[in-house]
Amino acid sequence: MKREGYYSSGEFARLAGVTVRTIRYYDKQNILKPSYLSDAGARFYTDRDLARLQQILLLKYLGFSLDDIREMLIDDPDDRYLRHSLQLQKKLVQDRIEQMQLVEQAIESTVSALEENHQIDWSRMLELIHLTAMEKSLKTQYLDAGNISARIRLHRDYSRNKTGWFPWIYDQCGIRSGMSILEIGCGDGALWTENRRKLPRDADILLSDASDGMLRDARRNIGAGDRRFSWRVFPAHQIAAKDASVDLVIANHVLFYCDDILRVCREICRVLKPGGVFVCSTYGRNHMREVTELAQGFDSRVMLSGEKLYEKFGLENGEEILRRCFVRVECRRYADAIVIDEAEPLIDYIMSCHGNQKELLLERYQEFREYVETAVKDGFYITKDAGIFVCVSPDEGTDEEKYPAGLQWSDSLSLTLS
């Protein structure tokens, strides 16, 4: 007997514009299971299943394999998160359009070289091969974007400090007219999109990231027409800038991902002008600890992260590391916490982590959801333990008047909770 709000396989296939055979095939491939299976074996689907099928068909259209699609599917339980999923899919389409435009340009250039010189431009051919092999990179960026967005949403929507993280970091940097600025690992450019009105008109800002996709996001979000910005892909230990050419270097939650932190710091010192400033952020051992405790209270085997990044470079040990390269180092903590009484954003955050939680929790998802709903119903408090180090590169002297204006060395600039 058909349930209210459910579609039979035939109805579901007609709504999606595909065949029943296709629906059954996706079922066998474990990427689209029916929401309800009757005792007689009849399959029934819901609007949520239709949203999932929409993702499958789009990713298939974009050229991804079923194995890729199985990894890339995002389960969004309500309209708000469906909108988020659609935004991520739009980004993926934009990335693919840009990729194909580059492929077109490379083909045209290769053809022109053949017509004019009657020989192959092998450098352009190698570039073409590289461009046509970007699917894995796009898939990774899509997954990373979904995970990053889940984490940003939790902090943005439920943090108690009314001064957001990115405005606070900007205020610590002492940015002034005419400065040359480099951000390493710029991500999607949020530091600048959230502080655009404060930024001097004559600032010269180079945004870098090891990921082509992240730089595309930053360029798209900031706007290619803003002449204050330029973009370059390079790793943190090989900065594409001249010696003593930069006033300020910023690295937001970057150093603990670097294989050789001291090598990166030496490279930053190389490009900084004498007395230039390096601002880098990290977190401490108590950061988000209640989230880990919550997940492990449900299943003690859950590990939300394969490594404790704060042990590599955190608020507790960062100053000791940085003093090996910089003449002055100051730690400034960002006072904040999260209080949440909704389960879904917290579950989303947990599922976005880089540990083993998916394999342990997805099979018991409904039970886990009820567990989290009970935990947060009266408000769930989460510690945030993050901050920055402000560092000065070596100079002939250490007089404070040599340091850039706007940096308050003697005052604590950490904010109190409102």
Notes on the protein architecture:
The chain has 17 helices and ten strands. The chain is an alpha/beta fold. The strands form two sheets. A seven-stranded mixed sheet has the order 6-5-4-7-8-10-9, sandwiched between helices. It has a three-stranded antiparallel sheet with strand order 1-3-2. β2 and β3 form a beta hairpin. α1 crosses α2 and α15 (343-352) packs across α17 (365-376). The longest helix is centred in the N-terminal third of the chain and has 39 residues, at 79-117. Mean pLDDT is 82; it is low at 396-406 and 409-418.
Brief sketch in words of this structure:
The chain has 418 residues and is α/β, with parallel strands linked by helices.
Main beta-sheet annotation: 7 strands, mixed
The residue-averaged pLDDT reads 82
What's the arrangement of strands in the largest beta sheet?
Answer: 6-5-4-7-8-10-9
Distance between the termini: 55 Å
β-sheet strand percentage: 15-25%
Rg from Cα: 25 Å
Number of E-state strands:
10
Helix tally equals 17
Helix-strand topology string? EHHEEHHHHHHEHEHEEHEHHHEHHHE
Unreliable spans are 396-406, 409-418
Shape: globular
Key terms for this structure?
single chain; alpha/beta; 418 residues; disordered C terminus; three-stranded antiparallel sheet; 10 strands
Secondary-structure blueprint:
Layout: E1 7-8, H1 9-16, H2 20-28, E2 36-37, E3 43-45, H3 47-61, H4 66-72, H5 79-117, H6 122-131, H7 135-158, H8 165-172, E4 180-184, H9 190-193, E5 204-209, H10 212-222, E6 229-233, E7 246-252, H11 261-271, E8 272-283, H12 289-298, H13 309-312, H14 318-322, E9 328-340, H15 343-352, H16 357-361, H17 365-376, E10 380-392
Helix pairs in contact: 1-2, 5-6, 5-7, 7-15, 15-17
